[in-house]
Design brief:
Number of domains: 1
Largest sheet: none
Helix content: over 70%
Shape: elongated
Number of helices: 4
Radius of gyration: 20 Å
Strand content: under 5%
C-alpha cells in the first residue's frame, strides 16, 4: 500500500509526482464512484431505476460542488494566514486580492528570498488542499 502521508506536496514537488498521485487517486475513486449506480440499479425494482440513477447523479454533482467549496475555503484561509505571517504589514484585503488573481504588485516589490518564502507557503497550502481531496 502506498503511504501518501510521507510525501510533501509543495513548491519542490515534481510535476510527474503530482500526476502520479492523481492517477493513483483516479484508480481508487473511479470504481467507488460507479459502484453506487451498479448496486442501486441491481437492487431497485425496474420501475425505480431511472429515479435511482437521477438521485445518484444529483448526489455526485452536489458532492463535487460541496468539496470544491470546502477546498477553496481551506486554500484561501490557509494562504491568507501564511502570507500575513510572512508579510504582517500588508492589509488583509490586499492579500486576499492577490490570492484571488488580482494584478497586484505583491511579488514585484519583494526580495528574491522573501518571494521564495511566499511562493513556497502558497504551494504548501495548495498541497494541503490536494490531500483534502484524497481524504
Amino acid at each position: 500500500m502506498l503511504d501518501l502521508s510521507s510525501t510533501n506536496g509543495g513548491y519542490n514537488t515534481f510535476h510527474g509526482a503530482i500526476a502520479g498521485f492523481k492517477i493513483i487517486e483516479g484508480f481508487g475513486c473511479e470504481p467507488a464512484i460507479q459502484l453506487g449506480y451498479t448496486v442501486g440499479q441491481v437492487k431497485a425494482p425496474r420501475t425505480a431505476v431511472s429515479d435511482i440513477t437521477a438521485f445518484l447523479t444529483y448526489a455526485q454533482i452536489a458532492g463535487l460542488a460541496l468539496s470544491l467549496g470546502i477546498a477553496t475555503t481551506v486554500f484561501l484561509n490557509g494562504a491568507t494566514h501564511d502570507i500575513s505571517m510572512i508579510l504582517p504589514n500588508l492589509p488583509r484585503d490586499f492579500i486576499e486580492a492577490s490570492i484571488n488573481g488580482a494584478r497586484t504588485t505583491i511579488l514585484d516589490d519583494l526580495s528574491p528570498s522573501l518571494r521564495l518564502r511566499l511562493v513556497e507557503s502558497i504551494a504548501s497550502t495548495a498541497g494541503k488542499v490536494f490531500y483534502l481531496n484524497v481524504a
